[in-house]
Specification:
Chain lengths: 122, 894
C-alpha cells in the first residue's frame, strides 16, 4: 500500500491522466468528482494529499478549500489546486484561502510529479 | 308517375350535398378564410330553424283547420325580434362574455354556477324537445309514404318505422361529425350553421314555389285565389282573442327559450351586430314563409278529395297536378325543415346533457385530486357524442311509442309550453339582480308540475295518462285540481288555461321565493354581471390572488381545451404581462379568464369546480364576498380597476428590476465569457498535453498506449468542435450569416437530423407522425437540420430514463408550423428554464454533456436568422422544445 492521495476533479480524461501518473509513482489514488459531497469523502478517511479542481459541479473548489482549512482534521493536509483559469487573481485567491500549491491547466506531467513529491516530503 | 327510387336517390344526393357544404365550411373556417361564414345573412338564415316541419307542413294544415290562427306562430318571434331587441342583445352579450354553451348553462351560470339548476333545465329541455324531434321524424316519413303510395306501394307501419330509424341514424352521424369537431361548445360550428342556412333557403324556395304554382298555376291568378279564399269556410272564422294572445305569447317565449334557438341565436353568434340585421331580415323571412299558407290550404281543400290530410297539401297538391319535380322540391323543403331542426336541437341538448349531467357525474365519481390527471377532453367529447345518440334515440323511441299517429300533431304547442317554463328564470335572471337560485328552482319546479298536470298528461287524451274521472272531478275528488279547470275556474280554452296557470304560478313562485331567501355570494356577483352586462367591461372577479402555480394550471388547461390552444392562451397572457415563455403570473384576472375559457368546454359549474380545486384555500372567503357584493356595482368596478392598476405598477416595477438584474448579469457575463472560453479550451488541452507526455515514455503498455492515443484524438476533436461553435456563434450573433436557401420538406430535414444525431446509439426511441410532416420548406435546410440535430442529441444526452423516448410532433397553429421535441426525461427545472438558451449554460455535469453549452444558444441564433424561433415548452412531462418554423413555410399540396 503506497501513500494515499485524493483527487477531486470532474473531467474523466484528466482524472485518468493524473491517476496513471501518480499510481506509477507509487501512490494509491482515490478519486471523487462531485463538489457537493467532496467534504464527506475527505472526512471518511483523511488522505495525505489532496488535489482539488476549482470548477466542480455542485460546489466550487475554493469553498471546499475553505472548509478543509476550517476543520482541524484537515487543516494541515497539503492541497494542490488545479484550475483552468490561470489568472494572477485566481492564484492569489487560492493562496489566501490556504492552498499549498497552485497548478494551471494545462500542466506538464513533470511539474505535477515534482510538486506532489515535494508536498509529500514536507 | 314518379319513381319512388328516384325520390330516395334525390334525398340521398341532397344529404350528400349537405355533408359537402358542411365539410367545405369547416375546411374554410380551419384555414381562416371564414369571414363570409360569419356574415349576418348566414346568421339570419340559421335562425330559421325556428321553422320546422311543423311550420312547413303543419301551417297549411293548421290554416285548413283553424283559419288565420297559424299566424300567431310567426307573430310571436316577430314581436320578440323587433320589440325585445334590447333583451336579445343583452343575452348575446352575456353569452359571449360568459362563454355560455347552452340555455341550461345560462341558468346555471347566472344562479351561482349551480349544478342542480343545470340538471333541471336540461331535463325540462329533454322532456320538451323529445316529442318535437319525434314530430320531425314523423313528418319526414309521412311525406316519404306519400310518394311510396304514389308509385303504387302501400306502406305499413313497419316501413315507416324503418325509414324513421334510418333518418335518425343519418342525422346522428351528421351531428356527431360536425357538432363535436371542436370540443369548445361555445365555438362556432361553421359546418352545421352553413348547412342549416342552405336548408333555410331550400325550404323557403320550396314553399314559395308551391305557393306560386298554386296561385297562378292552379287557381288562375291572384284575383281568383282571393275569391276562393273569400268563399271558403276559413274566412268566416273569427279569431278567438284569448287564444291569439296565448299563442303569440307562447311562440314568442319559445323563440327565446328553445334550446335550439339559444344555440343559433347566442352560442353560434359571431358578432352582436348581426342581431340588428336579423331584427328586420328574420321577420321578413317569416313573412315570406307565411305568405302562401292560406292559398295552399284553401286551394288544397277545394281540389283534394274529402278526407285528404291537409298537413301534406304542400306535397300532395303538386303531385295531384302531375308536377312531380315541384313535389320533390316541396319534399326537400320539408326534409330541410325537419333535419335542420333535429340537428341543432340534438346538438344543443347533447351539450346540455354532457356538460350538466355526464361530466359532473364523472368528476364526482373520481377523487378530487385526480381531476387534472384524467384526460377530461376525451371524456367530454365521448359524452357529447354519446348524448347525441341518446337524444336522437329518445326521439325515435317516442315516435315508435306514440305510433306516429295524429297524437303527435298537437304536440308542437305542448312542447312549446313546456320549454317556456324556463322563461321567468331566464328573463328574471337577466333583468333582476334580486333573483336567486332558490327562486329559479322553485319557479322551474312549479311551472314544470303545472304544465305536466294541465297540458302534458292531458295531451295523451282521456283515459290516456289521466282517467275521465280525474278530468271531471280532479284527483281523489279534489275538484279544484281538475287539470283543465284549476282552482275551479272553468270555461277557459285548455291551451290558454295551461299557459296562464303555469306561467302565473311559475313566475309567482320564482319572485316570492327569490324575495324571501338569500342568494349566495357567487350568485350576487354573477347576478350583477348578468344584469349590468353593458357596464361590466372587465367584470367582477371571483378569485383573489392565488397560490396556484401557472404550471399546474397549464397542465389542467391542456387536458381540457387541448395542448395548442392552452399553450397559446398562456403564452398570450405571459406576453401581455411582459414575460417570455408560457407561464404568466397567476393574477385574479387570468384565473377568471381561464375559468371562462374552460367553461366553454365543460360548462360553468364544472369549470368553476376544477379551478377551485387548483386554487383551493385561496378562494375568496364568503365573508369577503358578501362584503364586496354589498357594495354598489360602481364601487366594485372602481376598486377592481384600482387593484388592477396597482398590480400593474407592481409588475412594471418588477420588470424594471429584472431588466436591471439582467444588465448587471450581462456585464458580469462578458467577463465571465472570456474566462469561460479559457476554461473550455484549457480542459481538453490539459488531457492532450498530459497524455502526450505520458506517451513519450517508453514504458507504457501497448493497450494503454492505444487508449491514450484515442483520448488525445477525442479531445482534439472536442477542441475543434468548440472552436467551430464559437466561430459559428460569432457569425450568427453579428448578423453576418450567409443563408443557403433551398427547397425541401420537413420530413427530409427531420430524417437527416435523426440520422446525424445518432439517436439509436444512445438507445433513444424516436416517435414521429410522418403524415403531418409533409410540409414544404423554403429556407436554409442545413441550418434547420443543425437545430434539429442539436435538440435530438440533447434528448439523447439528458433523457436518462430506462426507456428514453423522444416524440417529434408537427402541427399548424395560427398559420404557423411548429415542431415540438418532447422527451420523457427529467426535464429542465423551472429556475433554469430561462437560462438554457444562454451561452455556456450547460447544466452541471460536464463529463456527460460533452459540449461546452453552446448548442441551444446557437439554435436560438439560427432560428432567429431564419425568421423562426425556438423556445422551451414547460409542463410536458419531460424536456420539450418548440421550434416555430419561418412564416414562408407552406402546407404541401396533398
Amino acid at each position: 500500500m503506497g501513500r494515499r492521495v485524493l483527487l477531486i476533479e470532474d473531467e474523466p480524461n484528466i482524472i485518468e491522466a493524473i491517476s496513471y501518473l501518480l499510481s506509477r509513482d507509487g501512490w494509491t489514488v482515490h478519486t471523487h468528482s462531485d463538489g457537493e459531497t467532496a467534504m464527506d469523502k475527505v472526512m471518511q478517511s483523511v488522505p495525505e494529499l489532496i488535489i482539488l479542481d476549482v470548477m466542480l459541479p455542485g460546489r466550487s473548489g475554493y469553498d471546499i478549500l475553505r472548509d478543509l482549512r476550517a476543520q482541524s482534521a484537515t487543516a494541515d493536509v497539503p492541497v494542490m489546486m488545479l484550475t483552468a483559469r490561470g489568472q494572477a487573481r485566481d492564484r492569489e485567491l487560492a493562496t489566501s484561502l490556504g492552498a499549498t500549491q497552485f497548478m494551471t491547466k494545462p500542466f506538464s506531467n513533470a511539474d505535477v510529479l515534482d510538486s506532489v513529491r515535494a508536498l509529500a516530503a514536507s | 308517375m314518379i319513381s319512388f327510387n328516384l325520390l330516395i336517390l334525390v334525398s340521398l344526393g341532397y344529404v350528400a350535398f349537405l355533408f359537402l357544404v358542411a365539410f367545405a365550411a369547416e375546411r374554410r373556417a380551419a384555414s381562416g378564410r371564414s369571414a363570409w361564414l360569419r356574415s349576418s345573412s348566414i346568421y339570419t338564415l340559421s335562425l330559421s330553424i325556428y321553422c320546422t316541419a311543423w311550420t312547413f307542413y303543419g301551417a297549411v294544415g293548421y290554416a285548413a283547420r283553424s283559419g288565420l290562427e297559424f299566424l300567431t306562430i310567426y307573430l310571436g318571434p316577430t314581436i320578440v325580434m323587433i320589440g325585445w331587441w334590447w333583451f336579445l342583445r343583452k343575452l348575446v352579450r352575456i353569452g359571449r362574455s360568459q362563454r355560455l354553451t347552452s340555455i341550461a348553462d345560462l341558468i346555471s351560470s347566472r344562479f351561482g354556477k349551480s349544478t342542480v339548476l343545470g340538471v333541471m333545465v336540461t331535463v325540462l329541455a329533454i322532456v320538451g324537445t323529445t316529442p318535437y324531434i319525434a314530430l320531425q321524424l314523423q313528418s319526414v316519413t309521412q311525406s316519404i309514404a306519400v310518394f311510396a303510395a304514389q308509385s303504387g306501394e302501400v306502406w305499413q307501419a313497419g316501413d315507416l318505422a324503418g325509414a324513421a330509424m334510418w333518418v335518425a341514424i343519418g342525422l346522428a352521424v351528421f351531428t356527431v361529425l360536425f357538432g363535436t369537431r371542436n370540443l369548445d361548445a361555445s365555438e362556432r360550428h361553421h359546418g352545421i350553421v352553413l348547412a342549416i342556412a342552405v336548408e333555410a333557403v331550400v325550404k323557403l324556395l320550396a314553399l314559395v314555389a308551391v305557393g306560386v304554382f298554386v296561385v297562378w298555376g292552379v287557381a288562375g291568378g291572384v284575383g281568383p285565389t282571393l275569391d276562393l279564399i273569400d268563399a271558403s269556410v276559413q274566412a268566416q272564422w273569427a279569431p278567438v282573442p284569448s287564444r291569439w294572445v296565448g299563442l303569440i305569447f307562447v311562440s314568442g317565449a319559445a323563440f327565446l327559450c328553445l334550446p335550439r334557438m339559444f344555440q343559433v341565436m347566442v352560442v353560434e353568434n359571431a358578432d352582436e351586430r348581426h342581431l340588428a340585421t336579423a331584427g328586420w331580415a328574420f321577420p321578413a323571412y317569416l313573412l315570406l314563409m307565411s305568405l302562401f299558407v292560406v292559398p295552399i290550404a284553401v286551394v288544397g281543400l277545394d281540389l283534394m278529395p274529402e278526407g285528404a290530410n291537409p298537413d301534406l297539401f304542400v306535397v300532395t297538391v303538386p303531385l295531384a297536378q302531375g308536377r312531380e319535380g315541384l313535389a320533390i322540391l316541396a319534399f326537400l323543403g320539408g326534409f330541410s325543415s325537419a333535419t335542420s331542426m333535429v340537428i341543432v336541437a340534438t346538438l344543443a341538448l347533447a351539450t346540455m346533457v354532457s356538460n350538466h349531467i355526464v361530466v359532473p357525474g364523472w368528476l364526482n365519481a373520481r377523487t378530487p385530486g385526480a381531476v387534472v390527471s384524467g384526460d377530461v377532453r376525451d371524456v367530454v367529447v365521448f359524452s357529447r357524442r354519446l348524448s347525441i345518440g341518446v337524444v336522437l334515440g329518445l326521439g325515435y323511441i317516442y315516435f315508435r311509442l306514440s305510433g306516429g299517429g295524429a297524437a303527435l300533431a298537437s304536440i308542437g304547442l305542448v312542447s312549446f309550453t313546456g320549454v317556456i317554463q324556463v322563461l321567468p328564470a331566464m328573463v328574471g335572471g337577466v333583468v333582476w339582480r334580486g333573483a336567486n337560485r332558490w327562486g329559479a328552482g322553485a319557479g322551474l319546479s312549479v311551472g314544470f308540475v303545472v304544465w305536466a298536470w294541465t297540458q302534458f298528461l292531458p295531451s295523451f287524451g282521456v283515459d290516456g295518462a289521466l282517467s275521465q274521472a280525474v278530468f271531471d272531478h280532479g284527483p281523489f275528488g279534489a275538484g279544484w285540481l281538475r287539470p283543465q279547470a284549476l282552482f275551479g275556474i272553468e270555461g277557459m280554452d285548455p291551451f290558454v288555461h295551461a299557459v296562464f296557470w303555469s306561467m302565473i304560478l311559475n313566475a309567482g313562485a320564482f319572485m316570492i321565493v327569490s324575495i324571501v331567501t338569500f342568494p349566495n355570494p357567487l350568485e350576487r356577483l354573477q347576478g350583477a354581471q348578468f344584469v349590468k352586462i353593458f357596464d361590466y367591461s372587465s367584470g367582477a372577479r371571483l378569485w383573489t390572488q392565488s397560490a396556484a402555480q401557472a404550471e399546474d394550471m397549464l397542465v389542467m388547461a391542456q387536458r381540457i381545451i387541448g395542448g395548442a390552444k392552452a399553450q397559446s392562451l398562456f403564452q398570450a397572457e405571459a406576453q401581455s404581462q411582459g414575460k417570455e415563455g408560457f407561464l404568466p403570473d397567476v393574477t385574479p384576472d387570468f384565473i377568471d379568464r381561464l375559468e371562462r375559457e374552460l367553461s366553454g368546454s365543460v360548462g360553468a359549474a364544472t369549470a368553476h369546480a376544477m379551478i377551485g380545486q387548483l386554487t383551493e384555500g385561496t378562494m375568496v372567503s364568503v365573508d369577503d364576498l358578501i362584503a364586496v357584493a354589498d357594495e354598489t356595482a360602481q364601487i366594485m368596478e372602481y376598486s377592481n380597476r384600482l387593484e388592477a392598476k396597482s398590480a400593474e405598477q407592481e409588475r412594471t416595477a418588477r420588470a424594471l428590476r429584472e431588466a436591471n438584474e439582467k444588465l448587471t448579469a450581462l456585464s458580469i457575463q462578458k467577463d465571465a465569457f472570456l474566462s469561460q472560453i479559457s476554461h473550455e479550451l484549457r480542459t481538453p488541452m490539459t488531457s492532450i498535453r498530459s497524455f502526450s507526455d505520458i506517451l513519450r515514455d517508453k514504458d507504457v503498455g501497448g493497450d494503454d498506449r492505444e487508449r491514450f492515443a484515442g483520448i488525445i484524438h477525442d479531445e482534439s476533436n472536442r477542441l475543434t468542435r468548440l472552436l467551430d461553435d464559437l466561430l459559428d456563434l460569432g457569425v450568427l450573433e453579428s448578423g453576418q450569416v450567409q443563408l443557403n436557401l433551398g427547397h425541401g420538406t420537413l420530413a427530409e430535414v427531420i430524417d437527416r437530423a435523426v440520422m446525424a444525431a445518432g439517436a439509436d446509439d444512445a438507445g433513444l426511441t424516436i416517435s414521429r407522425r410522418p403524415a403531418n410532416e409533409g410540409v414544404a420548406l423554403h429556407t436554409d435546410l442545413e441550418r434547420l437540420t443543425q437545430v434539429f440535430i442539436n435538440l435530438i442529441s440533447n434528448a439523447a444526452k439528458y433523457a436518462t430514463t430506462e426507456t428514453p423516448e423522444l416524440r417529434i410532433i408537427v402541427r399548424q397553429t395560427g398559420g404557423r408550423c411548429v415542431v415540438d421535441f418532447c422527451d420523457n426525461g427529467p426535464g429542465v427545472p423551472k429556475e433554469s428554464q430561462s437560462m438554457i438558451f444562454e451561452k455556456f449554460s450547460r447544466l452541471e455535469d460536464a463529463g456527460k454533456a460533452g459540449g461546452a453549452g453552446l448548442g441551444l444558444a446557437i439554435c436560438r441564433q439560427i432560428m432567429a436568422a431564419l425568421g423562426g424561433d425556438v423556445t422551451y415548452l414547460p409542463a410536458q412531462g419531460g424536456a420539450a422544445f418548440r421550434v416555430t418554423l419561418p412564416q414562408s413555410v407552406e402546407l404541401a399540396a396533398q
